[in-house]
Amino acid sequence: MKRRKFIQASGLGLLSITSASQVWSALEGVDKTTLASAELLADLDALCDLMIPDTDTLGAKSVGVAPWLIIASEHELEGANSSTLTNFLNVLSPSGSFAEVPQSDQIKRLSEVDAQAFKEYSDSEIATLWRTVKALILTGYYSSKVGASEELRYKLIPGHLLPEVDITQDESANRAWSSDWMAGKL
Amino acid sequence: MAKKVYDAIVVGSGITGGWAAKELCERGLKTLMIERGRNVEHVKDYTTELKQPYEFRYRLLGDKRRYQRDHFIQNQSDHFTEATEHFFINDRENPYTHPEKKPFLWFRGHQLGGKSLTWGRQSYRMSPVNFEENLKDGHGTDWPIRYEDLDQWYGYVEKFIGVSGERLNNPMGPDGDFLPPMKMNILEQKMSKKIADHYPDRQLSIARMANLTQVHNGRAPCQYRNLCARGCSFGAYFSTQSSTLPAAQKTGNLDVATDSVVTRILYDANTNRVTGVRIIDTNTREEKDYHSRIVMLCASAFESVRLLLNSANERFPHGLANNSGVLGQYVMDHFPSNLVMGDLDGPDVPNYMGGRAAPLYVPRFRNTGNDRQPYQRGYQINGSTTKSNWNRGLHGSDIGVSLKESLKKPKWSIFLLAQCEPLPQAHNRLTINSNVHDEWGVPVLDIDVSYGENAEKMRSEATQTIVEMMTVAGVKNIRTIPIDPVPGTAIHEMGGARMGRDPQSSVLNQWNQAHDIPNLLVTDGAAMASAGNSNPSLTYMALTARACAHIAEEFHAGRI
């Protein structure tokens, strides 16, 4: 399938390599995001935009989560592997590029998949893949500068502890903190 | 040239190694502290301390592919993240074995400061009951000391390191010399009151932490980042680097040798004394001997036992100072109940500012007073109220603007679980596996630990009790998350060179000296005759300070 080849192989002397894993293996140490196909990035951008769109703050597409998804899956974050993204896109949109599907159909399709994935934690292939991809998008966005410190609140050195902040006087005081997401462990 | 002979060698630089160095140096002994790992300089080497999440390539989750190759054990610790991975060992280079179907998770940090850089910092005294239960129920051997013997040393340590906590006047969690406690929020205060009203024997309090709530001994107070395991330039939590090492260095009596793996304790059969240690320089791979009149093992519980076992000789063919035959036996680690979670949402819930580096704490209330359970020993409860934020999006169905808006609102939840005391049992043991060697050619440990029927009864009862307490406290949507307890998970591994009254059944006497060799001491967790039900590090520190005072007295009197 042409449309979702991971690598723009022409000019790289890699045309004889057919599987994504072979490609990744051959390119150990190379920054894969610079090699990812424009089509793959477009599909991932579309996914990111549906999942976390621009509102009063930038969304996942605008802050560049898509290239990070490729790094994250290659390094097996959230249980992903180097095939997770392409496999998901293939089952999500078997007839062609997801980015080229009309947006109303994109929303409909992704909403169906999302509902199925979390309904009694279905173990179908697409549900399993989506839970992984969704986790990566969420992590990529809410640990970005915009996601962490503009959409949510972030302070590296609070300096003091206020165990009770009155949220009835100031609605913005009720916004979640992003800074404790990896620290709140015993 | 005459060989240099130190007054004392301390093997290890973690929580107890730092304390041993401080106490021996301050008592006038020329001391060499040996650390197998690299140097870590306070402030300068806390390289991730001020990094933002988006400055980490893997956004704090780390390179899982590399972790599977190099950190397949360490990666299972809650303290191991992309921000702290450099304070944990490479598992490939530091193997150990265990029987099939009896896994053990051994978490280690080979650097100056050891695990004092990444520890959980909860600091509790063991209770008088803990020191008496071995004798009363017949499991393990009787401690050669009682709470009264350690009371002043607990205070001595608390005053130096700084422990924040609430005084509860509860004999199962004896009060100490505390700094002001970290504050509970209104939800926690309400829960605490409901629990106290319903259960007169139970107190929900804030954990006692080696985190400063005010300036203390020249160290700055906690900045409420809750990122302690990255290292703290403020010195706001106790570590070797922030506390004991500067004190030892100030005396001018301390030498430090890093990158030096101790492979053997040197022993003179004519005098029945240890005379020093042999090391491998990890940079040059050359062997070198250091000599001293006292050797104190603070290498971490299992490494100290491993060193003793690997130092077997003609006089002690089954391990140095092992006339009793129990060296390596009676090892322990706390085990958890199942995890119990619930929601605290309501119209009046507040938000907070700052990350509180202190969980919740309920002192033991089982098998004490008039309470009797169908198992022996007991447990304390820990947990936390948290405002879960965006990561709850991983577990539910939603996309788009509604998801984004929903994740903007924090949601209060609580989790509690019990920390249960294991029985000291001979079949839980460490032996040397001579077929497997580490990076330095040293035979590795085989770790054989399992929990038994008593543990299952305690876990089951504790889980049910926590559900009931949460219900009383008004927690909603209570659910139980099963935990399959794998030994080692608590990172409270201890025992193996236990203290005891009888040289025939224990390795160490009441002063942490080997019964068989009086100038050899072990003061880390290996010395523990029982585990108690609380986090043990404060006890290790108190035992170390006490042992140092005694051996220094013996040294100056010319008896060592």
UniProtKB/TrEMBL annotation, chain A:
Q: Which residues form the signal peptide?
A: 1-25
Query: Looking at the record's lineage, which domain of life comes first?
Result: Bacteria
Against InterPro entries, the record matches this protein to: Gluconate_2DH_su3 (IPR027056)
- Which Pfam families does this one have? Gluconate_2-dh3
Key words of the record: Signal
Keyword Signal listed? The answer is yes
Q: What is this protein called?
A: Gluconate 2-dehydrogenase subunit 3 family protein
Q: Tell me which species this is from.
A: Pseudomaricurvus hydrocarbonicus
UniProtKB/TrEMBL annotation, chain B:
Has keyword Oxidoreductase? yes
Quote the InterPro entries the UniProt record gives: FAD/NAD-bd_sf, GMC_OxRdtase_N, GMC_OxRtase_C, P2Ox-like
Q: What cofactor does its activity depend on?
A: FAD
Q: Which GO terms describe its molecular function?
A: flavin adenine dinucleotide binding; oxidoreductase activity, acting on CH-OH group of donors
Question: What SUPFAM superfamilies does the record tag this protein with?
Answer: FAD-linked reductases, C-terminal domain, FAD/NAD(P)-binding domain
Q: Which superkingdom, per the lineage?
A: Bacteria
> Which keywords has UniProt assigned to this entry?
FAD, Flavoprotein, Oxidoreductase
Chain ranges of the Glucose-methanol-choline oxidoreductase N-terminal domain: 7-318
- Please report which protein family the annotation says this sequence is part of: Belongs to the GMC oxidoreductase family.
Specify the protein name: GMC family oxidoreductase
Instruction: Tell me which species this is from.
Output: Pseudomaricurvus hydrocarbonicus
